[in-house]
Amino acid sequence: MNIVFFLSAFLFFIGANSSQFPIDEATVAEIQHAFSQNKLTSRELLDHYLNKIDFLNPVLKSVLEVNPDARAQAEAADRERELAGGKALGELHGIPVLLKDSIGTKDRLNTTAGSFALLGSVVPRDAKVVHRLRNAGAVILGKTSLTEWYGSRSMKIPHGWCARGGQALNPYGKGGDPCGSSSGSAISVAANMAAVSLGTETDGSILCPADYNSVVGIKPTVGLTSRAGVIPISPRQDTIGPICRTVSDAVYVLDAIVGFDPMDSEATKVGSQFIPSGGYKQFLKRDGLTGKRLGIVRHPFSDLYANESTAIQSFEHHVKLLRKSGATIVDNLQISNVAAILNPYESGELVAMIAEFKLTINDYLKNLIQSPVRSLADIIAFNNNHPELENMKEYGQDAFLLSEQTEGIGEAEKAAISMMENLSRHGFEEMMKTYNLDAMVTLGTGAETVLAIGGYPAISVPAGYEGNGEPFGILFSGLKGTEPKLIEIAYAYEQATMVRRPPPLLSDLSSL
After folding, report:
1. Which pLDDT belongs to residue 173?
2. Alpha helices (H) in 144-235, listed in sequence order
3. Residue 307: pLDDT band by 50, 70, 90 thresholds?
4. Is the dihedral of CA 343, 348, 351, 357 positive or negative?
5. Where does the Amidase domain lie (predicted)?
6. Which domains does the chain have, with CATH numbers?
7. 510 an active-site residue?
8. Vertex 51, ends 49 and 57: CA angle to 5°?
9. Is residue 38 scored above 70 in pLDDT?
10. CA 58/CA 267 separation, integer angstroms
11. Which residue out of 42, 61, 62, 100 is catalytically annotated?
12. Considering 182, 183, 205, 234, which one is annotated as catalytic?
């Protein structure tokens, strides 16, 4: 990365924060305390993040656009707090939030999935999760980059690339893989361009970016959060969740966005039954590992780190720490038919998803108030007509073409869905129930497809760094609705380790 750029950024940031409160790496609770002590205002916090975006985003390319109404929202939050005598009006009140650019906002921001094909489209309303964030007093800061169309346009598109933003970069390594598709949301909070963000996941798109960018990602049980107003892929697998720097921050966001939504009634009716009275923050317990039964699954997930000794050694250390912290460890477990589960052709995932995408994206596009495209066929035509905008020569749209050839959910798709249900029932679920486990524990996020095809929840937490500085995480996952247990486990682990460190973007200058 250009050292002149970072030097200028470094000199700027020495005096960029007019408050006496150190904003970078601050948690939501610490920010709220600073608000209450008149050491920080929402406007100052917002301006700090806007300055960070101005200087870091030209290199990291994780933010597509900022909200022109964000300052007005921050100032309104400050007035509300003043009228309340300085008291906190909720964990997210006055906190700027970045949203993945597939989560609809009824404002002056675009919602495009990173593609020029949807630039200028107008959504009918805020996505339900955005509506709930606004009700919680959050400031909508802007939209983050993503792997364009979640990577569903072409199998050649690299993680973190989209036409509107270009190639987003992992802040922990020059040109490093940010993973996908909620790459921009993870990069932005990792680099302190915001405290919290929202991502979406169909298969790994929250968990993998969190892992690769040394932040926390919560993939909720499918149906716990509404997908209404979010550009879809698969109604069976899509879920919306937080990407933050700490477990507690992610839980505050989760509390704000969960709940039943008549616009996504079938999924959220089931999901809302899992929400505990009093919400999820009550499960932020330092002793949350006490009495938990954890199943350690090494093969094939740890195999991905065979040449990375630091990750393997750290994982062994963390397993011992889990035991020392009061958990019962059931080691060396295996998931039945895991090879078939991880193969999208053999499991049926690919067959089902390419058909589901055409159905759901056509429905989404038809309901937009205004849009340059109204169907998948229109998107394909747009890309063909604007090859220079969408980099068609290099990446193409092979996956879109496969999806357009499908004709709904027929016998092949039903068989594929049934196959995934059976693989989940006799694989992950059977293992969890046979050993009476509270959570499965794996190194990294290689188990993401196991969880995706069954709609199961998981939390990725930073676990360490390789010799070259590249991060890796630890994944805690469970059966549907087990977020309370997963939060207890993940929070207790995080508090016992405190592994995360910010990316060395500016600290590199100390060696000059």
Report:
1. 83
2. 183-190, 207-212
3. confident
4. negative
5. 44-486
6. 23-498 (3.90.1300.10)
7. no
8. 85
9. yes
10. 39
11. 100
12. 205
The DSSP H or E segment spanning 452 is: helix 448-452
Q: Is 405 exposed, middle or buried (0-12, 13-18, 19+ CB in 10 A)?
A: exposed
CB 123 within 8 A of CB 229: yes
Q: Which of 39, 56, 49 is nearest to 73 (CA)?
A: 49
The whole-model pTM stands at 0.96
Q: 393 an active-site residue?
A: no
Q: Which two tokens stand for residue 105?
A: 């906002």
Percent of the chain predicted with pLDDT > 90: 91
Strands 328-333 and 293-297: parallel
Instruction: Confirm if 303 and 442 have CB atoms less than 8 A apart.
Output: no
Secondary structure, 3-state, 236-275: CCCEEEEEECCHHHHHHHHHHHECCCHHHHHHHHHHHHHC
181 catalytic per annotation: yes
State pLDDT tens for residues 425-440: 999 999 999 999 999 9
Chain center to CA of 394 = 27
pLDDT of 3 > 70? The answer is no
C-alpha 105/C-alpha 171 separation (Å) is: 27
Q: In this structure, are residues 365 and 381 in contact, taking their beta carbons and an 8 Å threshold? A: no
Query: Are residues 381 and 426 in contact, defined by beta-carbon separation less than 8 angstroms?
Result: no
Q: Please state, in angstroms and rounded to a whole number, the distance separating the CA atoms of residues 179 and 497.
A: 24
How far apart (Å, rounded) are the C-alpha atoms in residues 169 and 503? 12
Nearest to 281 by CA among 320, 317, 235, 242: 242
Q: How far apart are CA 99 and CA 101, in angstroms?
A: 6
Is pLDDT of 445 > 60?
yes
Helical pair 128-135 and 247-257, crossing angle rounded to 10 deg: 110
Q: Are 472 and 305 in contact (CB under 8 A)?
A: yes
3-state secondary structure at position 312: helix
Kindly name the residue from 181, 185, 234, 371 that is annotated as catalytic.
181
Distance between CA atoms of 342 and 474, rounded to whole angstroms?
Answer: 19
- Burial of 382: CB neighbours in 10 Å, binned 0-12, 13-18, 19+: middle
- How far is residue 458's CA from residue 78's CA, in Å, rounded to a whole number? 35
pLDDT at 509 over 50: no
Q: Specify the 3-state DSSP secondary structure of 108.
A: coil
Q: Which residues contact 510 (CB under 8 A, 6 or more apart)?
A: none
